[in-house]
Structure to design on (225 residues):
């Protein structure tokens, strides 16, 4: 039962442009959302999170938007840099420790 | 290195052998979580432990898998009589007491069962 879905397995973007990653969820009990970045052969690195009481959270080049009515969140990276090439995972929790992850989106930033 | 540490990074076992994966949480973190990632999938929760206590093992297979987090030393995920389907990346994460939802992950152990 995939409660968190990342429907785009890959994304290619030119350096300097905006990367937009999307994530949908089905469990209405989810109230905390996170984005992780993962390089090959490494563990996921926490990027940014958002609580359900907010609809936007920004940290440097990274902004996460939450649309609760649509059960949708997105991660914007601007401007995209070559070092941003990685797999990005969306994760969610229902006021507890059990994170549910999407399958990931592989981002490739072209020079 | 103040991050989550896992070892070994790579582990090869033959079917029927035992696999032991170790995890040391970040300094100051007392909560440990284990996740498994199968190829082309996201991470799946397995178990949540605090020192000397298993809090939630609802994601663990009922047989052959066990976990512990002793008073001293790292957390151990143990897989007995491994089968090919156990081949995966196993990630450990830790969190502080005050924010269990923001978890910091180790580099993972890649288990290959021949």
């Amino acid at each position: 039962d995939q409660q968190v879905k990342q429907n785009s397995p890959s994304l290619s973007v030119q350096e300097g442009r905006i990367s937009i990653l999307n994530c949908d969820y089905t469990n209405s009990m989810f109230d905390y959302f996170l984005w992780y970045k993962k390089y090959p052969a490494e563990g996921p690195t926490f990027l940014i999170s958002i609580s359900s009481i907010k609809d936007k959270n920004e940290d440097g080049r990274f902004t996460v938007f939450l649309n609760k009515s649509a059960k949708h969140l997105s991660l914007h990276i601007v401007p995209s840099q070559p070092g941003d090439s990685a797999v990005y995972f969306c994760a969610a929790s229902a006021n507890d420790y059990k994170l549910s992850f999407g399958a990931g989106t592989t981002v490739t930033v072209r020079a | 290195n103040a991050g989550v540490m896992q070892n070994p990074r790579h582990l090869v076992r033959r079917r029927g052998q035992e696999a032991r994966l170790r995890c040391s949480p970040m300094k100051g973190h007392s909560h440990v979580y284990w996740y498994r990632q199968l190829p082309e999938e996201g991470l799946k929760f397995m178990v949540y432990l605090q020192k000397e206590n298993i809090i939630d093992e609802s994601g663990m297979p009922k047989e052959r898998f066990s976990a512990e987090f002793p008073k001293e030393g790292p957390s151990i995920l143990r897989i007995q009589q491994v089968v090919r389907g156990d081949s995966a990346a196993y990630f450990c994460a830790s969190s502080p007491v005050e924010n269990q939802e923001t978890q910091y992950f180790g580099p993972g152990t890649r288990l290959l069962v021949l």
About this structure: Chain B touches chain A through 28 residues (CB under 8 Å).
